[in-house]
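Chapter summary example.
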Amino acid sequence: MTISRRRTLQLGLAASGVALLGSGAASAEKVFTEFGVAIRGADPVAFFTEREAVEGLAQFQHDWGGATWQFASAANRDRFAAAPESYAPQYKGWCAWAMTIGQLAPTDPTTWIISDGKLYLNFNRATVRRFRRDVPGNIDKADENWARLYA
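The structure predicted for these 151 residues follows.
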């Protein structure tokens, strides 16, 4: 019996502990959140300015894209509010590696990369390592799947 490349990738992703959520457009209509808070409360601006995941604070919030975003400072909140598309993660915060196979998976803000000025979040350390193996190729696959399935 032959297993398709897509199924092999799905099995590998599942073995990494990724909770695949299927490919229904309704699932991707919203930014990935937990309890309405985007990217598990991490400050999206800090990825670019501090080069690390920094916890945001409830006192510095901004609502955008159907989610509440939290920031480490008022300055970061204001930067985001002025240009949210510049700081928000790709694929509405869903796992970039899972998107390479057309699937949705939650993300951990400690597993991220920035490429060409864009933030990509991943499910865990294993998936971010896989994503880093071929960043341009994986972005191309993920962008194609996002446009075809969710945009």
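To summarize the output: The helical segments are 5-15, 44-49, 74-82, 84-87, 96-99, 125-133, 135-149.
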